[in-house]
Amino acid sequence: MATAPSAKLTPLLKDELDIVIPTIRNLDFLEMWRPFFEQYHLIIVQDGDPSKKIRVPDGFDYQLYNRNDVNRILGPKASCISFKDSACRCFGYLVSKKKYIFTIDDDCFVAKDPSGKEINALEQHIKNLLTPSTTHFFNTLYDPYREGADFVRGYPFSLREGAPTAVSHGLWLNIPDYDAPTQLVKPLERNTRYVDAVMTVPKGTLFPMCGMNLAFDRELIGPAMYFGLMGDGQPIGRYDDMWAGWCMKVICDHLGLGVKTGLPYIWHSKASNPFVNLKKEYKGIFWQEKAIPFFQSVSLPKECSSVEKCYLALAGEVKSKLGEVDPYFIKLADAMVTWIEAWNMVNSPGEKPAMTSLPNATSKK
User: Fold this and answer.
1) Is 248 strand, coil or helix?
2) Where would I find the beta strands (DSSP E) of the chain?
3) Which residues are glycosylated (predicted)?
4) How many domains does the chain have?
C-alpha cells in the first residue's frame, strides 16, 4: 500500500523570528537562500539614497524600510540610526515584533560542510539559541547540549543547567573578516577551515562580534544590540558590530546570559576595499586599545536588573571614561541613550498607532 507523501515540515520558530538585512543593492542573493528563508518574514533596511528602488525576488514575505521611513517613525530620535553604514540594520531590530532576530549581509551565501551538504545556517542558529550556554565553566567537548556530546568528567553538576543563550555568533568561509591592515598584507588569504564546533564565550571574556551572520533572542538582549553611531558624518566606521558586541557581552555577563560562537558557517563572497576600510577604521584601530580595557574593567550597578537599565548605566560610563579619549564617545554615549528612548517608544505597550501602521514602508507577501 502506497503511503501518502509527507507534509512539508514547518521551519523552526517560523512565526517567532525575523530576518534583518541591511542593503544598498538588489537582493538577488536571496535566491540562493530561498529554501531556508522563504517561509520567514524579512525586514530589509535600505541604506543610502531612499529614492533608489531595491529589487527583492518574488515569493518572499518582507517589509522594506528606507531612510525616509526611519525619519518618519522615529522623528528626532532617528539621529541614533547610522547612515551609509551597515549599522542601519539595528533599525530592523527596533521595529521587529518577534522574539528572535537573525541578521545577515547581502554578500553572504549558503556554505557547504565538508561532505558537500548545504548548511542551513538559520536552523543551526536556532538550535544554539534554544539550548543553554556554559558561561561559568568550560566544557572541553565544547557545547555539551549538542547531539552526541555531554558534560565531561569533572564538570560540576551544579552548573550543568547552564545559562539562557542570548546570542549566537556564526562564522564564515572564504573571505575572512579582517581589518584593513590585515587585508592589505594578506589580500589572497581565504578561510577554508570548517571547524565542527560550538562553544560558549566564557563570562568575563570579550570577543570581536561580526554582524554578517548573527542571531539573538530579542526579548532577552534586544536593547543592547545597538550597532553604534557610525558611517556618514562620523569619524569612524566598521566598528558598529564590534561596539554592539562589547556592550552586549558586558550586559550578558552582568545579567547571567550566555553567548555562543562557532557553527553555523556562511560563505562570505567578496572582500571590501581595504583602502576604503582603512579610512573608516583608522581612528578605531587606535581607540580600541582604550575601549577594550574599558569594557574589561567596567562594572554595572547591582540595581541594574534589566537590559535597558544596564545599557543606560553603560552609556554613562562611556561618556565619563571614554569621553576623555575623544569627544566622539560623548556623542556616541548620547546616541546610546537616544537608542533606548527609541526602543521604549516603539516597543512600549501604549505606543502610538502611528508607530505601528508604518504606511510608507514597502511590504510584500
Assistant:
1) helix
2) 17-23, 41-46, 61-65, 100-104, 108-109, 165-174, 198-200, 213-217, 258-268, 362-364
3) 153
4) 1
- pLDDT of 364 reads 72
- The answer as to whether 10 is a domain residue is no
| pLDDT attached to residue 70 | 97
Closest to 281 in 3D by CA, of 175, 180, 185, 176: 180
d(CA 114, CA 137): 30
Return averaged pLDDT per consecutive 10 residues of the chain, 365 residues in all: 50 96 96 97 96 96 97 98 95 98 97 98 98 97 95 98 98 96 95 97 98 98 97 95 98 98 96 91 96 98 98 98 98 98 90 42 67
Q: For residue 224, which of 263, 166, 165 has the smallest C-alpha distance?
A: 166
Q: Give the amino acid at 37.
A: F
Q: Looking at the domain assignment, is residue 213 inside a domain?
A: yes
The whole-angstrom separation of Cα 136 and Cα 115 is 34
Q: Which domain covers residue 68, as residue numbers?
A: 17-347
